[in-house]
Amino acid sequence: MNEESIQRxxxxxxxxxxxxxxxxxxxxxxxxxxxxxxxxxxIAATLGFMSEPVRGALVITAHQGVMRAxxxxxxxxxxxxxxxxxxxxxxxxxxLLGRLKNQLLRFGVTLGISTPSVVTGHAIHHRTRPKIITLxxxxxxxxxxxxxxxxxxxxxxxxxxxxxxxxxxxxxxEFF
Amino acid sequence: xxxxxxxxxxxATVRQxxxxxxSQAGFEIVEAVDGVDGYDTIQRTPGIAMVICDxxxxxxxxxxxxxxVKEDPRFATIPVVMLTTEGQPGLIEKxxxxxxxxxxxxxxxxxxxxxxxxxxxx
Lengths: 176, 122
What we know:
The structure holds 2 protein chains of 2 kinds. By secondary structure, chain A is an alpha+beta fold.
């Protein structure tokens, strides 16, 4: 994959993450297209994806306080359990990969996606691996930070060339 | 008691969010955690007026559950709306062909969901 396609993929990751964060109406600030040094995150959520030209995983790492703050607004007021924060981290990653999937339709890529898995721990750190494209978008909130990583293995010669429309937009309803 | 709506989603948070919106609008909510649980719940719960169903779920996904419901003459007339992160036209068409009444891409606005529920249970 050439630099232009990698940049396009990185922009798509950043835009989709920003849009999802905006939709939950939490005060989050974009930091960088890259990892925050020593972030010490304590929750991670991941989903795998697969298509003919590209396969890999989306990984979110964050401070649990941030995931708590990103809960749907109507659920923030009451008591929030750790189990609920974990469930939401998985759903948040699911919604982010859904957005990415819908945007990648523009480039003729149709992803199949897994269900999410969530991990909690101390100082969780995403490791990059050789021969895999890793992109990251980092965001900061008053309660900590959140990073979205996209690990992608791409078949030789595949480039992101716009050839169609994105899928149905988030928040839209279509009656049949 | 309001009309009964079954919410099928593997995320407890989404079930809670949907349930809160619809119960405030006067609907009674029944929950299921995946397609298998959803189909079981339809069979053992009388009077379900509508189903709101995720697509990407373990065991039995939402499209597979929709197909089972529509193939069963006891439940074929229950309106089903898919509520999912998926916006892929091929999947939407598949759901339409299987008999779904609508498709909403998450995250949803409560007002939109309530309007859909009122329209389809009228």
